[in-house]
Amino acid sequence: MEFALKLVVNVGILYRLMFGDDALGDLNLKMVEVARKVGAASKFTGSGGAVVAFCPEGTSQVKLLEDECQKEGFVILPIEPLPSRLNEIDLKTLQIK
Fold this sequence. Notes:
Layout: H1 2-24, H2 26-37, E1 41-44, E2 51-54, H3 59-72, H4 88-94
Antiparallel strand pairs: 1-2
Helix pairs in contact: 2-3
């Protein structure tokens, strides 16, 4: 999981370098900043106006994130990951050799 968190952070940095803060927007950057403030990983959704945050430390960290988001006027909506819809053939084509 540590690798995944580093990857999320590095992609965020890459986006900032590629597109610049003006293109990403102050609001989007603020959402990422709020999530990182409590130690959560966050990622741009791609459409703007939302980020996905992951709290690896569990419910106490989620509560901290909720409190910080409320202070900033952000709304948190929990997501429910769904099982993969990939079949065995799809999964085999994605395997790293």
